Amino acid sequence: MFFIGQSTKTGKEVTKDLYYFSENQMLDCNQYLMHDTQNDELILFDAGNGKSLNSLFEGMKKLGFSYENITKIYLTHEHIDHVLGLYPLMEILKNDPPEIFAYTVTAKILQEGKRNKIFPGNLGITPEMFGVDIKPLNVIELTPSDTVNIASNFKFQIFHTPGHSEGSIVYYEPNKKILIPGDLVFIGGSFGRYDFPDGSLKKLTKSIEFVNTLDVKYLLPGHMGISNEGNREIEYSTRMVKSISSYF
C-alpha cells in the first residue's frame, strides 16, 4: 500500500549535515533532511505526497541514513503535497513514531483530520488516489515566537507567512543563513499560489516582503530547485509579486 514505485529521490548535501531531496511527480514536494550528529537523529522537513515515500527512503539509504532514525518532522504548511506522507510514515514507524511539529493552524487541521483543508479547492483528487486514509494525528503546535533547537547543530526561528495558505510558516536559521519557506517563494522569481481557499495575494505579498528583509544564503523552497544565492532569488520574487499586486 505504501511503497508505490517512483524514481529515487537523490539526496544532495546543501551544507554540513543538511540534505536536499528533490520533488517527485504528481503533487509532491522537495524535502530536507538534517542530521543531528550529537544524538545521531534525523529531522525531516515536510512529508511529501506519500507515494514518494519509498523514493525518499532509497535516497536516504544511498547517503547512509535509515528512515528508522527520523525522530522529528517539521511541516511548512497543511497542503496535500507536504503532509500526505505523514500517514504512511507514522504507520511504518508506529513502534517508535517521530514527533510532528507545525504552526497552530496546520496543527489543528491535522489533529482534526480536515480533508477539505489538506486538499484545497476543487483539484479533482482524493486521499484514496494516494493510498492514504486521512485520520487525526498528534501534532505539536508551534508559534512564531518559538526559536526551535531542531538539532544540536541547527537553531531555527519561526515566522508566520500566510498567503499561500493560512498555516504557512518559514524556518530561518540566522547563523547559517538558511531559509526553508515552503511554498511562499521559489527560485527564478516564482512564488506560491494564492487562489486556494484561505489564500490571499495581499498576505502573500506582505509575507514575501518580510522574508526579503532576512539575510539568506541558502534558499530551500518546497518546489523547483534550490539556491545558494537566496537574497537575490527572494528579491526577484518580491519584485514579481509586487508587480502583480499593483493590478489589484
Mean pLDDT: 91
The first-level CATH class name = Alpha Beta
Helix content: 10-25%
Looking at the structure, what is the overall shape? globular
> Architecture in CATH?
4-Layer Sandwich
The strand count comes to 12
Oligomeric status of the shown chains? Answer: single chain
Helix segment tally: 7
Given helix and strand content, the structural type is alpha/beta
As for the CATH topology, it is Metallo-beta-lactamase, Chain A
First-residue to last-residue Cα separation: 46 Å
Strand content: 15-25%
Superfamily (CATH H level) name:
Ribonuclease Z/Hydroxyacylglutathione hydrolase-like
Tally the structural domains. Answer: 1
Order of strands across the main sheet: 1-2-3-4-5-6-7
Explain the overall architecture:
There is one protein chain. This protein has 248 residues and is an alpha/beta fold. It has one domain (11-245): Ribonuclease Z/Hydroxyacylglutathione hydrolase-like (Metallo-beta-lactamase, Chain A, 4-Layer Sandwich), CATH 3.60.15.10. The protein contains seven helices and twelve strands. It has helices at 53-62, 80-83, 86-92, 104-112, 115-118, 201-211, 230-245; strands at 11-15, 18-21, 31-36, 41-45, 70-74, 99-103, 140-142, 147-151, 154-160, 169-173, 178-180, 218-219. The longest helix has 16 residues, at 230-245. Mean pLDDT is 91; it is low at 1-5.
